[in-house]
Amino acid sequence: MQLQDIHLRDPFVLPDGGKYYMYGTAKVTRKDNATVMTVYVSDDLFDWQPIETVLKIPDGFWGTQDYWAPDVFLYRDRYYMLITLGAPGRKRGTQILVADSPTGDFTPLTDGPITPPDRQCLDATLYFENGTPYLVYSWEWLETGSGKLVLVQLSDDLTHTVGGESILLSAAESGISACLQGEYEGKTVNGYVTDAPLVYKTESGKYLLMWSTFSQSGYSIAIAESDTLRGVYRHREVLFDRDGGHAMLFKDYFGTHYISFHSPNDDVERPTFLPIEETDNMLRLTA
Known about the structure:
The chain is mostly beta strands. The protein is built from one helix and 23 strands.
């Protein structure tokens, strides 16, 4: 099937072994006592084949719903999936699963989420610097009013956090987020959205924070910058404001860098790939 025929939110592309594996938020099913999701595999980024991927979630496990925004990384010869889960009576959080293949079977690395269980969190991903793993995640606006993007170091085996956290950005102070209304725990709340954080280090050593929010133009992808990894990130520019977001970056086998995101942000969303490059300490679309 062609990319435009795939119904998928939050597309994440992992190049591995000469192929491309695309994960994202889609319907999951139960099959043979396992949770099954679809991963799309391609040789060329144009034609894709759906493959059933098994998540072996044990009975009684804390996360029973949502299954949002899976990001998959090859790390120390294994494949680690960070996926946002929820459950009645539990705060939403991101769980790390692990497998020996990019198509599973994926099993929980730990008994609970890697994000703080006392916070409503989502969209956690990994960033590596000098071999050290870091977790970057969104502390959800429904709970905090102003969504926050948080960074914390992880242990080498990715099972727990190390040291203190850093608040990189607060949506209400970003200068671009519009105030939205939602419902949380049976109450109407107002606030500012942070989705899908991603840290990128430029060739000159500047740190860029890519994230998604609702601006006056609708769902958008923004970039903030800092001179240090744990610094306060200041808004630099809006990269895309045409009703698309939840972005990630990947490089194809010919050396071209792409941004991947879903658009439009409604029930007919499709994965979108656009070429992107670093220019003057900034990421810019080239098409």
